[in-house]
Amino acid sequence: MDNQNSEIRKDYRTGHYVVIVPGRDHRPKELEVEDEGAKNLKNCPFEPDTVDRINLEIMHVNEPWTTMVIKNKFPELDGFTPLEYQKGFFTSISGYGYNEVLIESPKHYDKFEGMDTKKSLEWLNTLIEREEALYSRNYIKHVMVFKNYGASGGASIGHPHTQIIAWPEILGIPEIEIENANAYLKENNSCIYEDAIKKESSRILFETEKIAAIAPYSSRFAGESMILTKRHVNYIMDLSQDEKEEIVEGLKKIIQVNKKLFGEQSYNFVIHENKAEKDYHMHIELYPRLSDLAGIELGQDVFVNTMVPEEYAKKFKEEVTSI
C-alpha cells in the first residue's frame, strides 16, 4: 500500500476479510505478560515437584525429565464421552476427543525462543509422537497443536507449555482452509500455499533452503506471520530432518524479532496440518497479541489490522540481521 488509505483485503486461505489500516502501527508500549504462577512457584502445576505424574502423565523424555506430556486437567474434550451426533435445527457433536499438554521444560522461566536446536527438536519430535498416537485413536480426524503465551494470548499458566487437541471432525478454520486448498488445486492444478510463496514476494520475512516465512497479504493481526515448507508436506510426521530444524529455528527467530519490534508481548501460534488431507499444506501461523478483539471482529468476523503487512516485513528484515 503506497498511500495512507485503509484497504479491505480478502484472505486467499479462508475467504475472510481484513481491514488494513496504515499509519497506526506506532511502536506499542511494552506489554505486561501476566504470570500469576511466577509469584509463587508452589502454585504452578507444571513444576517437577508439583506436576501430578500419577494421575496425569502420559509420557516423558529423559530422566530426570526434560519434556513431559500430561492429560489436560480441565479438558475441552474427553475420550470417555461417547461420540454422538445430533442433526437438525439444533446440530451438535458430543464432546469426544483428547486434550494433552506438552510441558516444554522443567524450568518455569525458560522461554520457547531460548531453546537450543537440540531442545527444540525434542519438543517437535514429542509433538509428532503424540500426534501419531492420537490419530490412531478411534474416530479422531484432526489433531491441532497450538501455543498460548501471556495473558492476552489466553495462557493461564506461565510455565512454558504447548497444547494438543484431538477432534472427531475437522472444524472451523482448518476445514475452510482444506476446502479452499482443494478447490484451488482443482482449478489451478497447483497448491495454493506453494503459490503463496511465489506471489508474496513483497511480504517475505526470510527464506531458507527448506522453508519460507511471510507476512500474509491479509494478515488479521499486526505482525502476523506464516511459516511454510517449500516442499509439499501435509502432515508433521512427514517432515525431513532438515525441514524440522529449519522450522523450529525459524519459529524462534520470528518470536525473537517480534520482541525487538514490539517489546515483550503475548502471542499465539498454531500448527495447521492434517494426516489424511494430502492436498493440504502444512504451515504454522503466529499471531502477536498487541490489541484486544472488539466489536467488528466479534460481531462481523472482520479483523482490523493496524500494521500493513508490507511494512511489518520491511521492519522485520531490518531487525533480523541482529538475531
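the 2nd protein, sequnce then structure:
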Amino acid sequence: MIGRIIKTPDCVAEGAKFLAEREPRFASALRETGPLPLRLRPDGFEQLFGAIVSQQVSVAAASSIWNRIKAAGLCDPQSILQATELELRTAGLSRQKIRYSRALAEARIDFERLRHCPDDEVVSTLTAVNGIGRWTAEIYALFSLGRADVFASGDLALQEAARILFETGDRPNERQLRKMAEAWTPWRAVAARLLWAYYRVVKDREGIR
C-alpha cells in the first residue's frame, strides 16, 4: 500500500493545517512563510539523471552541464550507454558521474511501476543504483512522486531549520531529525516544505544568500 499522494496546492494546505494544529511552532512558522509551494516535478529517468549531474556542483554549473547534455542528445538510457566516455566527458560529466549515469541507465528502473510502490520500496529500489543515495531517493519520492509522508532528514537545510525553529541547540543529525519527524506523520513531506520555506525566511532576514 502507498499513502497519500500530494497532487494540488489544496493537499499541501491540508497538510499544513494538520501540522499547525499539532505543533504550535509550525503554526508560528507558517505565519512567517505564508502558503507553502506545491513544488512537484515530473518523474522518470531524466529527473534522477539530473540529480546525478547536480551532485557537488553549483546550481549554475549544473544548469550549464545539463544544457550541454541535452544539446548532445544524451538524456535517455540508450544514448548514455551508447556514448563513448569522451562524448560524456565533453558534455561535462566527470569520470565518477559517468559511472553513476551508466549505472542508472543499466538499472532499467520501471518508473511506471515505481509510482505504485510503497515509500520504502521506492527508496530501496533507487538506492540500489550506484550513485543514488538516500537523500536523492527521498527527494525523488517527495517531489516527483508526490509522497505525502516522506522526509529527507539528511538535508542540511532541513536540519538547520529544525534547529532554529525548535531551538535544539546543536543542529540535529540525520538520525535525530528522522526521529523528530515521526511526530509529523502522515504529512512529513509538508513538514519538509514548511521547514525549507522557514529556512529561506530566516536566511533572508539575516541577509544570508
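The domain at 9-40+149-203 is CATH 1.10.1670.40 (Endonuclease Iii, domain 2). The chain has a mean pLDDT of 95.
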